[in-house]
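Hi R.,

Here's the chain you asked about this morning:
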Amino acid sequence: MKRIGILLCSALLLSLGACEDDLDQAPISEASAANFYRNTEDFQIAVNGIYNALGSYPVRSLNLSEVRSDNVYAPGVSGVREWNPVNNFEKTLATNPLISDAWNANYVGILRSNTVLDKINETVVPDAATRDRFIGEAKFLRAFYYFDLVRLFGRVPLFNRVLTPAQALEVPRSPVEEVYALIISDLEDAISKLPTTYNAQNRGRVTASAAKGILALVHLTRSGPKLHPAGPTLGVNEYSKALTLLNDVISSGQYSWVNNYASIFSYTNENNPDIVFDVQAIGGSAGDVGVGSNLPSEMYEELYARAIGIPFPGGIPIDGPKTPSNDLINSYSANDVRDNFIILPSYRDPNGALVNRAQFVKFLDVSRAGVDRFNWPINYPVLRYTDVLLLKAEAILRGGAGGSQGEVDVIVNQVRARAGLQPIANVNLDMLLAERRREFAAEGLRWHDLVRTGKVLDVMNAWRATEDVARKINAVTANDIVYPIPQTQLDVKKGLYDQNPGY
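And the predicted structure, written out as tokens:
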């Protein structure tokens, strides 16, 4: 099932623990593991530690992309859950724990990447192919963490090596263009160093094709209309670059079409041909506590969990459900097979009373429940082959050289056919986005799709006008395209970071 060991040995945990504790004071700090990085085995553990920092990414994507978008209506019923202000576009998010957690988790991953890259050399890892692979993995993951940061916060402090706390306190936020320069450089180097495939023991590690796919997404994002002066879209024209990379992934022969939609997400069919890159999770037994996924528990409601006999506490309190929006639900036609797999429209509570409220169940298999809510043994797809195909269609529609309208229609109709839908013709960007919305619901892509394509303000404000019956969601402005810098970071050293406009 899972092939990447994501448990760190105690030596590595001790070496990194002090660094992570300092994240409330400075983005990264000095590593204290001078005697740890001595041989290939030590570096394998260290690289595994970089992957380990992905553990919070699935729930972060749910709360900061899915909940932020028109896919979820979560204004809150009473009290305030952490995700309710995100959904409501409130201006006080600088003190929200979801925001600071996103900042800290990404910089933990960057610190671990930098530590590996700083310390690796031919003496400690003599085999050139192994050394290149470690460097490629570290650079891919550093780029991935920075890409997450730039999409969430815009300008961020840039670190390409390990710094002391005092040094880190002298590093201001870098322009978005400079952050992207490191991301692109890292991904290009990763492509040249990563293998195309792995043996069964190492399945789940990042490949050269995965690096190409993420780099293509970077080019597409950079090319989007510039709606925010320091946001993730720059208005550059790199659609042809993206299209070339996506075609490389498609022609690699490493991935293929999966005919059954539900099987892509099956607990017993992980690492299937649709998965280009995912967050691996181990779970399901007492020995795996802490290394599984808590994503399902962040989607289903607590009342539902009790009703169906999930054997541990958890789930979303009914005063702040993350409800699939009516607009999303109504976007599915009656014969779309994805609808009922992704969304449960209603349920019976423990007393048998009908709860007429929908919830996401895409990643839920009750028969596979572990020992607690952090122990679901389900991987989280970050980049799927289906996504690669649809991103290719997007690149063509946006002007990427070498594609055609016919190719766009073929791609979209392949997705629709799997869903049980009739073909359509002359697919445009709005039609493509609508299909992406239905295909990737609950996978954390929707907000980024809207920002990347420049549709975010029009779509979100039109949705707010019809969906927000509670009248709690604020008008969405260009300032809302990025989140605020966490207040904990602003307080470290007055004047080091400026706050994003509007917060």
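The chain has two domains: 10-288+381-490, 296-380.

Let me know if you need anything else.
M.
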